[in-house]
Amino acid sequence: MKTDTINKWILLEQSGELDLLRAWLLRRELARNAEARSFRDDLLRIASASRALASDSPAARATLAAIMEEAERHAAAPPRPAQEVASWTAWRPAYAVAILALSAGALWLLLQRPDQSPATASTTLPLPTSLVAAPEWDDGLDTELTSLDNEISLTSSDWVLAANASELDALANDVMEGTQI
């Protein structure tokens, strides 16, 4: 056994708080373990020396008598039932059942409402092949892109020239009237 556990049990034995099973285990361990026996003997010597010192003064005797009376009164009183605080570990099975029930309910709701469930592979429409297949890059495509770039440049420069040629008011009027420029 661990030394700390044995030392705690020896202290509980001295205060009278050790239960019968642990007292039996402690006696068995003390028979085998010399270090534990030494600790217990040292503790007994310290306790007896402190009792001898305490009994010499009148105040210490009065305090010791009051403690002993209270201990006897407490020992004579019927024991109160211990109130156990339920830890979360006691509720683990209930938590597991609740989580399982919530998961099953959510799955059931998703299966009952196929119109609101995520789309599956069978309900999606195939993409047109014209969007999927990319045109091959050749000189004709390069020529088309160049001409498109030139047209965009000319159109934007025409707009800038028109705006710079003090026709800004006329353009604004045309836009406001809805006529095409």
Number of strands: 0
Radius of gyration: 47 Å
Overall body shape? elongated
**Measured distance between first and last alpha carbons:** 98 Å
Binned strand content: under 5%
Helix fraction, binned, reads over 70%
Q: Structural class, from secondary structure content?
A: mainly alpha
So how many helices? 8
Give a structural overview.
The structure is a single chain. By secondary structure, the chain is mainly alpha-helical. Among the domains are: 3-76; 136-177. It has 8 helices and no strands. The protein has helices at 3-15, 20-32, 34-54, 58-76, 92-112, 129-132, 139-164, 168-177. α1 packs across α2 (20-32), α1 (3-15) packs parallel to α3 (34-54) and α2 packs across α3 (34-54). It is elongated, with a radius of gyration of 47 Å. The termini are far apart. The model has no long low-confidence stretch (mean pLDDT 75).
Concise summary:
It is built from eight helices and no strands. It is mainly α and 181 residues long. Among the domains are: 3-76; 136-177.
Fold blueprint:
Layout: H1 3-15, H2 20-32, H3 34-54, H4 58-76, H5 92-112, H6 129-132, H7 139-164, H8 168-177
Helix pairs in contact: 1-2, 1-3, 2-3
From the structure above, extract its key features.
181 residues, mainly alpha
